[in-house]
Amino acid sequence: MSGGGFSSWWLRAGEGSARKITPAGLLLGRSAHCDVVLPSERASRRQALVYLASEGPRLEVLGQGETRVGERVVERSADLADGDVIGFESLSLTVSREESAAPRVRARQPVWVLKDPDGGLFGMASSPFLVGGSVEDDLRVAGWPDAALCFRLAEGGALEVEAQADATVDGTPLPAGQRARPRRGARITLDGRTLEVVTGGAFASGSTAASGDAPGLEKVSLEFLPRGGRLTLVQGGEAQTVYLSDRRCDLVAVLLSPPEPQKAGDPIEDDVVIARVWGKQHADRTNLNVLLHRVRKDLSRVGLDGHALLERTEGGGATRFAVHDRTEVELE
């Protein structure tokens, strides 16, 4: 992708009101507890959920009432695009994409920190934050092209980097003009010099502790929906929520509520996880690793360090959700 704009997605009811679409999702239904209430007895209490996936907004049908996108009836799920109309018996909602400047860093939101090869630490207190060889850049690196890397604060506090010259992120090529979302601990290399993302994001403590340190969560809750669920993590009194679809939700559920005598925070053996998530369907460690990657990616979309939260034991064979004895764990 290219360009300096920041995209936000909205669900509009008519010309006036709109709700922002986030990774946590907007719950639509007859219940007064929904984010958008459908005034129809034929709608289910929880009829549908619209959430922001990594590729863009997506619709998940949760209830029995009819849900349409344009003229098409959606039975299970559908990707959404700008201008799509989601139709119910009693209400129509339009998906809208808006381009704007990158969001400003809020005073309470921790900044991301870069570490250079000499050990210097540099906080990115503004968005965008330019790194390159020019005197106009926010961080100057000798020998680099002007504005070689452009860092921005993305949705949910995640970090986004756009390369203006060919680079790599953890060894994966990042061609000029392309963007990536580096996680905490990522190493970005350009012209033989490497910058490390030391800390940051919505749950960063503001310290420069090593990337393997535990997140120190105060509360983790998983709210089950007719399909998938909402995972909420609280630290420092601030919460981040993300919607997890189907098996992704099942994976987190078994890690937070494993069979006795194990408890949340313990490494859960792969055989146990596979049996709970896939049941009698055939699955192996490859399937588990793919699912684990997808859940980590979901967490990274809201600025969380998926690799730190979902830990694999050394050599593999077991996975734990990184909670400690004082973390309140709730499944509902």
Quote the beta fraction: 35-45%
Average pLDDT rating: 85
Using only C-alpha atoms, the radius of gyration works out to 21 Å
Largest sheet: 6 strands, antiparallel
Number of self-contained structural domains = 3
Q: Provide the spatial order of strands within the biggest beta sheet.
A: 2-1-11-10-7-8
By CATH's scheme, which homologous superfamily of the largest domain applies? Answer: Winged helix-like DNA-binding domain superfamily/Winged helix DNA-binding domain
Low-confidence stretches: 201-215
- Assign a percent range to the helix content: 10-25%
- State the secondary-structure class: mainly beta
Q: Could you say what the CATH architecture of the largest domain is?
A: Orthogonal Bundle
Commentary on this structure:
The structure is a single chain. This protein is 12% helix and 38% strand. The protein has 332 residues and is mainly beta. A hairpin with a 2-residue loop joins β21 (187-190) and β22. It is globular and about 65 Å long. Residues 201-215 have low confidence and may be disordered.
Provide a brief overview of the structure:
This protein has 332 residues and is mostly beta strands. The chain has four helices and 29 strands.
